[in-house]
Amino acid sequence: METANNIAITVESIVNAPVAKVWESWTKPEHITKWCQASDDWHAPYADNDLRVGGSFTTTMAAKDGSFSFDFGGIYTAVEDNRLIEYTVGDGRKVSIIFEDQGNSTKVIETFDPESTNPIEMQRGGWQAILDNFKKYTETL
After folding, report:
1. For a tag site, which of 21, 42, 55, 140 has the least CB within 10 Å?
2. What span, in angstroms and rounded, lies between the C-alpha atoms of 23 and 30?
3. 90 phi and psi angles, rounded to 5 deg
4. Rounded CA gap, 112 and 15, in Å?
């Protein structure tokens, strides 16, 4: 994955849970709203997910103080249960998430095209923070 000026960014984590549990936590709206934020002063009050090729998803990310919110969403281009999710966001950037079954743990590798507004390290840090929240949430289910 490459954009005109930037090479894709990858974040990853090993989640101490079997792949079926990790997949469910990643894909079910009732779980997404519990982990999809980069910091404690944000939350995800809404999530909708039609997990199939051609299906769409939307997650609302909002500051808890009500000062700012935005919807993050896209269209799925590939879905392989317990293994792979790929999608394109509204501005055309591509995202790929690989779920590597490691028995009692799952390696999650998320690769995404950067946007052109924020520095690469800020984007990497934000996506890694969300993935870290996902790991923490999923391991306590």
Report:
1. 140
2. 13
3. -55, -30
4. 19
